[in-house]
Design a protein that fits this description.
Length: about 500
């Protein structure tokens, strides 16, 4: 089956009304809805096309359009709005069938009430203020997971909200077709990287499976010198070669090509490996993995397939935004009073999409894994607001934890640190933030993203029907503890 390309996805705009007001009103509603979709598309703030589909007037029309939306692979979600009053018992049967992401866009065609012209005809045509309330009730009554956006459709902040939700909905479609390639198992004895892969596939759609490391080793051997030469030229253009050990760099190029071959052949968008299982390989992939991350693949170290999948999904959701998204690990703290920071890095595999400056290719020995010194990209992360995201398996359900952070240019030069690094202040402050993260059970591995906002991630979690915990400037450990306790009860009842 052909998979849908990103630019083929669209969202369907469905507008509610009824026959009560006569054909002229219905014609006006339809014309305005088409105009609104056209203008919002032309405005350039929506990352996907919004396509006006229908002015819904009967239960049959609604059921029919929902079935069509469910069936169409290119439909990533529906956006509904009640231009006039639309009795919502008409919507029950259709909404009960809906299995695509659902956004209720409570807006109004005109921005202002026209003082002189307003009469009862105007009131009947422009009654979203109560039409959207009638619609909101039925979605609430049906306990439907949905996004509600209220505001004027031409406003930038409103369109940005709709755009962020579209990205989350696209992330859901991407998630449902994602395949993760595992080389080797999880690192021995590590708990948080484990999880129920069947539950993950049921909830999130991921197909997480294993391939032999030996098969990758054969693929690595099969790469030609010509392929490596071409890639070395690309490395030379994009990075500063800060090593004489070209053989080590060439070996990483060989690994990059081989892993990409296997990912492409099997249709996988993410992969994992572990330094405990590198049979037949000369180096732990470092530069190779960083390069694949830069191309949009997800990756998790030490067999962490959950973070690998989340990295791929968040990269897909935020494509084109430009801030960067990386596989990350909280490594060590700087606990100077009033100047506290977390230093994030990994053994090798931080994505250069978050780099402040042109990355350097360096070769250094790796203390663990017992292999040859691997080439890797070394750089500092750029400053800016970002968040770190972790997905953990609570036993019976998945919990996504998102923490707001402020990344800074590292306060120390650290000339002897041979890996890419990002330094940040966790919210509400480093120590309280760490306390809250640990209370929530967040992993040491995260996805660090400058592009996905907490609202976008919350939208994604809601669509996927998993728990979402957000640690931010206003979080206190006491309230978080209560929230986690109550969530645990609620999720057991679900
Ligand atoms: Mn790790």
């Amino acid at each position: 089956m052909k998979t849908v390309k990103r630019n083929e996805y669209e969202f369907w705009f469905i507008v509610g009304s009824q026959f009560l007001y006569g054909p002229e009103v219905l014609e006006t509603v339809a014309a305005r809805a088409a105009e609104m979709a056209q203008k919002m598309n032309a405005g350039g703030r929506l990352p996907f096309r919004l396509v006006y589909k229908l002015t819904a007037k009967t239960p049959e029309e609604i059921s029919h359009i929902v079935k069509e939306a469910n069936y169409k692979d290119t439909c990533a979600g529906i956006v509904v709005w009640m231009h006039t009053f639309s009795p919502s018992k008409m919507w029950i049967n259709g909404l009960r069938e809906l299995n695509k992401p659902y956004c209720h866009f409570a807006t109004q065609y005109n921005r202002e009430i026209p003082n002189d012209e307003i009469d009862m005809d105007f009131m009947n045509l422009n009654q979203a203020a109560h039409g959207d309330r009638e619609h909101g009730f039925i979605a609430g009554r049906l306990r439907m997971a949905r996004k509600v956006i209220a505001g004027y459709w031409q406003d930038e902040d409103v369109q940005k909200k709709l755009g962020a939700w579209m990205r989350a909905a696209y992330g859901a479609a991407f998630s449902k077709t994602l395949k993760v390639m595992r080389f080797g198992d999880n690192m021995r004895n590590v708990a948080v990287t484990e999880g129920d892969k069947v539950e993950a596939q049921i909830k999130l759609g991921w197909q997480v499976n294993t391939w032999p490391v030996g098969e990758l080793a054969e693929e690595i051997r099969a790469v030609t010198e010509g392929e490596i030469d071409a890639l070395m030229a690309e490395y030379g253009e994009k990075y500063t070669l800060a090593t004489d050990d070209l053989a080590a760099v060439r070996y990483q190029a060989r690994e990059e090509i081989a892993i990409r071959h296997m990912l492409t052949r099997e249709g996988c968008g993410a992969f994992t490996n572990t330094f405990e299982d590198l049979c037949g390989m000369e180096q732990l992939p470092g530069l190779a993995t960083q390069r694949l991350l830069e191309q949009g693949y997800g990756y998790g170290g030490e067999g962490d397939w959950k973070v690998a999948a989340m990295t791929a999904i968040i990269k897909a959701m935020t494509a084109g935004m430009g801030g960067g998204t990386a596989f990350m690990e909280d490594y060590t703290y700087h606990l100077e009073k009033g100047n506290e920071y977390s230093l994030g890095a990994h053994m090798l595999e931080v994505c250069p999409s978050v780099a402040l400056e042109r990355p350097r290719i360096e070769v250094h020995p790796l203390g663990i894994g017992g292999k040859q010194p691997p080439a890797r990209l070394v750089f500092e992360g750029h400053p800016g607001s970002a968040c770190v995201v972790s997905l953990i398996d609570m036993g019976g359900r998945m919990r996504m934890i998102c923490q707001d952070i402020e990344a800074v240019k590292p306060v120390l030069p650290m000339p002897n640190l041979p890996v890419a690094r990002v330094m940040w202040r966790a919210m509400p402050d480093l120590c309280t933030g760490a306390q809250c993260w640990i209370l929530a059970g967040g992993a040491h591995h995260t996805v660090l993203t400058y592009d996905a906002t907490p609202e976008m991630l919350r939208d994604w979690a809601r669509i996927m029907e998993i728990e979402f915990v957000h640690i931010n400037q206003t979080t206190t450990p006491e309230r978080l503890e209560e929230e986690l306790f109550l969530a645990d009860l609620a999720w057991k009842l679900k």
